[in-house]
Amino acid sequence: MKKFLVLAAIALACSEKKVGIRTDCVAVERVTVSADCYKDTTGLLLTADSPSSIALDWVLAPLRDTTGAQTYVPVYMTTTSNQLVVPDSLVRKYPKIGVAFVGAYGCPSDIYFSFVRRMDGDSCARWYLQERFVKGD
After folding, report:
1. What's this model's pTM, rounded to 2 decimal places?
2. Would you say 48 and 98 are in contact if contact means Cβ atoms under 8 Å apart?
3. Which of 27, 43, 47, 125 can bridge 85 by disulfide, Cβ–Cβ 3.0-4.6 Å?
4. Do residues 55 and 22 lie in contact, with contact meaning Cβ atoms separated by under 8 Å?
C-alpha cells in the first residue's frame, strides 16, 4: 500500500503543469455580449475577439450590485472557441458579471470587462458593457 501511495505522489508531482508566458499569445482586446433580449433560458453569450480555433480560459467575477465595490468568488470556465455561454443559474443571481481573465492557457490577460443587466423600454432585459480597463490603471 505504501508503494502505491508513493507512486501516486510521484505521478502527481511529475504531472504538475508548469505555466510560462507563451510567445505565440494573441491578446484578447475586446469581449462583447449578445444584444438579444435575455430570456433566462439560453444563458448569456460572451464573445472574445481572438481566433475561434484557440481554446480560452475564462475567470468570471459575478457581482451582487453594479458598483463592483465588493469581493466575489471567481468562476472558472474553459471554452474550445472564442465564445462562452454563461449559465442562467449564474446570470439570474447577479446583475453584473465581470470578466477578470480571458485568454489562452499560459497567456497574459491585462484587460478587465464587466457587463450589467438593464431593462429596456420594450420590457426586455439586455446586457451591456459597463467597464473595460487595463488592470493596474
Report:
1. 0.76
2. no
3. 43
4. no
Quote the CA–CA distance of 78 and 89 in Å, as a whole number.
17
Q: Residue 56 corresponds to which amino acid?
A: L
- In Å, what is the CA distance from 4 to each residue of 1, 13, 15? 5, 14, 16
Q: Per-residue pLDDT tens for 69-102?
A: 667 889 999 999 899 999 998 988 899 999 999 9
72, 62 contact by CB (below 8 A): yes
Domain segments of the chain as ranges: 31-134
Which DSSP string do the residues of 91-131 spell out, in sequence order?
HTT-SEEEEEEEESTT----EEEEEEEEE-TTS-EEEEEEE
Work out the pLDDT band at 4, boundaries 50, 70, 90: very low
Provide the pLDDT for residue 13.
Answer: 45
